Amino acid sequence: MAKDDVSKIVERYIASGRSEKDVERKEHYFKMALQLQPKNVHALNNMALLLQQERKFREAVDLYEKILSIGVVARPYPVYYNISLCLKSLGNLEGAKTYINRALAIKPDDEIFLELKGEIVDLLSSGSKESAPKITSNALEIGATYDEWDPPAVSTLTSQIYYADWNDYKYHRGLGETDLHEKFVRNKLEQRVYRCNSCRYFSAGTCRKKGKVGRKVLPDSICKSFYPEKH
User: Fold this and answer.
1) 8 A C-beta contact, residue 116 and residue 85
2) CATH 3.20.20.80 fits 3-126, yes or no
3) Domain residues of the chain, as ranges?
4) For residues 180-199, b (16+ Cβ closer than 10 Å) or e, as one string?
5) φ/ψ of residue 212, rounded to 5
6) What ranges cover the TPR repeats (predicted)?
7) pLDDT of 17-69, one tens digit each?
8) Residue from 42, 56, 37, 223 nearest 145 by CA
9) Taking a C-beta distance cutoff of 8 angstroms, is the pair 99, 87 a contact?
10) pLDDT per residue over 83-109, tens digit each?
């Protein structure tokens, strides 16, 4: 079989795996792709993301490390990030710190990387492998006017606005393909274009989000539940 024909078949297997909802069938398609091209980084990355989603973190790390060893990924920081996430979940905090530092060496201002490193450092400092529960704006009294600037993570907004779901976003981020969308969202936040009065839940100075209905909010504030009315 010609090399071009094999590549086309592999691409079809990968596309079928990505669109498939059943986990076993997804895995089947990715394995078929890897049987034909064991070093196909797209197939490896998809399989690794699936294993990570299924909490098979050790197996996922093995595949991510294989991607790095092949040496064709020009921008490996998303792979470093995913390895760090997996190692953190496995309780290997020092290893997780090593890999997130590698990602930050390439993109030192990436807020998603910085957030993960902060979590890892906190866990190392406390000696605990359990994160403390976070208090969100939902816990505030409904009668008080909300006036804080507490936006969602750039990754959260990017996944909601531009991608089918979180897994779709992670797939594209794993290939380093989300940078432009993340930059657009980050700029909107920095310029205060994204704020309460541009949120789909904002109406006449109040919030219509479930659990916050009727709560007064200042137009130039923002909370974790923000979602742009138009994008």
Assistant:
1) yes
2) no
3) 3-126, 137-216
4) ebbeebbebbeeeebbbebb
5) -130, 5
6) 77-110
7) 999 889 999 999 999 999 999 999 999 999 999 999 899 999 999 999 999 99
8) 223
9) yes
10) 999 999 999 999 999 999 999 999 998
